[in-house]
Write a structure and sequence with these properties.
The protein has 409 residues and is α+β, with helices and mostly antiparallel strands. Helices cover 49% and strands 18% of the residues. The strands form three sheets. A five-stranded mixed beta sheet has the order 6-8-9-11-10. The radius of gyration is 39 Å and the shape is rod-shaped. Mean pLDDT is 82; it is low at 206-214.
């Protein structure tokens, strides 16, 4: 029988041992608990001298275990205590330990003799075996074994059945409570993750979203400025307005899952870079090497914005030399790896640790990057996130790798 439960997993064996020892002592009867295969899971309590000695012999111990197993199986089939004689003639009983029709094992008790007339009516659980009579010491111990009134023996079995039922019901109730607590924790954790995703998404949206700007009014103004720039032949102004308009459209996109296509994300970055080009002229250059096959892959909304913004804050602004930013994509057959590389002076390993932990008090720029890390893990799982690689040497730069599943839109 393939059991859903195992006795050692379902019941606390240490507590079972204590109960068994006390029951055996109070009832003055041998007792042991066996598993579904008849193997003892507790140490014997109150065993007769005959049984204790015979079980030291591997051959006789084998017959004992077979008797225990057969007795437990018989009790399982009858769903109540079964009285029988073991292979050497002692009277024993087996009380099944079951839960939801699953047999876990049994209490095996007895090793006594009862009234001779009654004893003759009790069947052997297995074939009567006389091999133990080859040992004179066992013969003597067998003859000196105590007798017990059958009525008392039978009532002991009934009592143990009630004890067994109580133990199993209590353990089952505890297991159900543990499962309910586990489910409750899982639901709480799932709710927390959903809340964090929503919070992270709102934090990732551009600051302009916090202003109560009417989108139609905003785009009407931008279109008007762009039209004026066109009429006045101010091409750079016209281009800048269009880039800014595209950025605003992207930022005002609504997506309940916080996901967007790579194509839209890269378009936003290019518009952002074009505006910065107008501001900073030749102080920086950039390259977006994104093969076409990745443009339809979904990625988190505004996943690149904090990294590009940090490039200007911590690489371009602080120095006079020309800076460079490269954004490229590749895959390993399963995940997309988006790499953002600059030619700055790098980051120390300690600061990298602070950034990834979100320690905003110790490292500037850590909030945005840690936010990306959290969003990737919340959306796709703990195996996803970002990696920061830096030699922390002048002009040797820093590479940030973002990993997420290669999922089509």
């Amino acid at each position: 029988m393939n059991n859903k439960y195992k006795l050692q997993e379902f019941l606390d064996v240490d507590r079972l041992q204590t109960l068994q020892d006390n029951f055996s002592k109070s009832m003055m009867i041998a007792l042991v608990v066996v598993d579904q295969d008849g193997i003892p899971v507790t140490s014997p309590s109150g065993f007769s001298d005959f049984c204790a000695h015979s079980r030291l012999n591997p051959t006789l111990a084998k017959y004992c275990h077979e008797s225990d197993n057969a007795g437990g199986r018989a009790a399982m089939e009858s769903l109540k205590p079964v009285v029988y004689r073991c292979y050497c003639g002692f009277v024993e009983f087996a009380v099944p330990i079951m839960i939801n029709d699953h047999y876990l094992g049994a209490f095996i008790s007895g090793q006594v003799k009862v009234e001779e007339e009654k004893e003759q009516t009790i069947p052997y659980i297995l074939n009567h075996n006389q091999i133990w009579r080859e040992n004179q010491q066992l013969i003597n111990l067998h003859e000196s074994a105590k007798r017990m009134p059958y009525d008392r023996f039978e009532s002991t079995a009934s009592t143990l059945l009630h004890v067994s039922s109580y133990l199993v019901e209590q353990a089952h109730a505890n297991n159900i409570q543990r499962e309910l607590r586990k489910k409750d924790l899982e639901l709480t954790d799932e709710l927390r993750k959903r809340v964090e995703i929503e919070r992270s998404l709102h934090e990732a949206e551009f600051k302009a979203l916090s202003y109560q700007i009417n989108p139609h009014f905003l785009f009407n103004v931008l279109n008007t400025i762009g039209r004026l720039a066109y009429l006045e032949d101010a091409q750079r102004t016209e281009t800048m307005v269009h880039d800014f308009s595209d950025m605003m459209r992207y930022l005002l996109r609504k997506n309940n899952h916080g996901l967007i296509t790579m194509n839209h994300e890269i378009s936003y970055v290019k518009s952002y870079m074009s505006i910065q080009k107008v501001r900073m002229s030749d102080r920086f250059d950039y390259e977006c090497d994104i093969p076409e096959k990745y443009l339809s892959v979904v990625c988190p909304f505004l996943i690149l914005q904090p990294l590009v913004e940090n490039f200007f804050n911590y690489v371009v602004e602080p120095r006079d030399t020309s800076s460079f930013l490269q954004i490229r994509a590749k895959d390993d057959g399963h995940d997309v790896i988006l790499e953002v590389t600059d030619n700055g002076d790098g980051i120390s390993q300690q600061n990298i640790a602070n950034i990834l932990s979100g320690d905003q008090n110790r490292q500037k720029g850590s909030i945005g990057i840690n936010n990306i890390q959290n969003r990737l893990r919340l959306l796709f799982g703990e195996s996803y996130g970002l990696e920061i690689i830096s030699a922390h040497q002048p002009a040797m730069g820093t590479t940030i790798k973002l990993r997420f599943p290669m999922l089509p839109a």
